[in-house]
Structure formats: structure tokens, C-alpha cells
Amino acid sequence: MNNEKFVELCKGYVVDYANAFMNLTSINPPVNISKDDVYVVWLNRTLQNNKALLSTTVEDGMYYEITYNGDKNEVYFDVYKHIRNREIKLGDE
């Protein structure tokens, strides 16, 4: 599967998931996103496998990891919520 096809597939999965589940959380007013609201944060292709991290323009802290296993023709879809971002100062090493 080439990158363009994989990204379109991923965006479709994110749209379907987000529209089904994001309105069950505290987002007010309810939203309905399209593929135009989904963007790729990171994309990798190794041999016949693809992996992408995606997010949406909705400020809900969610991101999505989608992996295509070309050997088995399977897609794995993981959903994560960003909980915290903090700065950790490192010494002068």
C-alpha cells in the first residue's frame, strides 16, 4: 500500500471514530469532523508496513496511531489521550 492510500485510509478511520465517540465526552457543542480536519503528525513506511500518528483540529487532546501489517493485510488502530506535557530541565552534561 503506498503512502497516499494509507493516509487516506487512516484519515477515514479517525473521522469514523471521532464522530462516533468524541461527542460522548465533554466537547460542547457537539462536533462532526471530515478528513480535512485530520492531519498527519508522523508517517513511516518500512518494507510492506506503514505506521502513522494522526490528530485532528479539535482541541480534545486525542491522537491516533494506525499501523498496517502488510504481511497479514491487517490494520491496528490505537487511540490515545494526551494527559500532560511538562518541561524537565537537564543539567549541563
How would you sum up this structure in a few lines?
The protein has 93 residues and is an alpha+beta fold. It has one helix and four strands, in the order αββββ.
Secondary-structure element order, N to C? HEEEE
In the residues, how many domains can be counted?
A: 1
What percent of the residues sit in helical stretches (DSSP H or I)?
10-25%
Whole-number mean pLDDT: 90
Show unreliable segments: none
Give the spatial strand order of the biggest sheet.
Answer: 1-2-3-4
Beta-strand content bin: 35-45%
Q: What is the structural class?
A: alpha+beta
What does the main sheet amount to?
A: 4 strands, antiparallel
Task: State the total count of DSSP E strands.
Answer: 4
**What's the shape?**
flat
Summarize the structure in words.
The protein has about 90 residues and is α+β, with helices and mostly antiparallel strands. It is built from one helix and four strands. The chain has one helix spanning about 5-20, and strands at about 40-45, 50-55, 60-70, 75-80. The protein has a four-stranded antiparallel beta sheet, with helices on one face. Strand 1 (about 40-45) and strand 2 form a beta hairpin. The protein is flat, with a radius of gyration of 16 Å. The mean pLDDT is about 90.
